[in-house]
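Hi all, posting the design record for the shared folder.

TITLE: backbone redesign
STEP: 1 of 1
STRUCTURE INPUT:
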């Protein structure tokens, strides 16, 4: 494989990695915000009788927020998997570049 193609692919992979890392940061921030909101709602529901309409409304909100949090966790796992794949490919192209440079200067 040509040296320039390997370098171009490595730059492209690096760009993808930065994009995925930014998404992970956003998801992590959203999950943190959700956790805080869930904790707030949990405390608020305790101010009401367990079977009251208000307590049930908070329980429903908590349930929905937990579902959103679960979906965010799944997205995070997918992105982490993608990052591992990108890192492996990045290492492969790094080795290709090193090999090409060694052949260029050895010969």
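Okay, here is what came back for every position:
SEQUENCE:
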């Amino acid at each position: 494989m040509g040296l320039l193609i390997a370098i171009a692919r490595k730059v492209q992979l690096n760009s993808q990695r930065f994009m995925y890392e930014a998404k992970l940061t956003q998801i992590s921030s959203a999950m943190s915000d959700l956790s805080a909101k869930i904790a707030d709602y949990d405390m608020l529901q305790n101010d009401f009788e367990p079977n009251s309409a208000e307590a049930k409304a908070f329980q429903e909100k908590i349930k929905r927020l937990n579902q959103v949090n679960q979906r965010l966790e799944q997205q995070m796992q997918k992105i982490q998997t993608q990052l591992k794949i990108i890192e492996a490919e990045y290492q492969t192209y790094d080795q290709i570049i090193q090999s090409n440079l060694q052949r260029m200067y050895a010969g």
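COMMENT: The chain has a mean pLDDT of 95.
Let me know if anyone wants the other runs.
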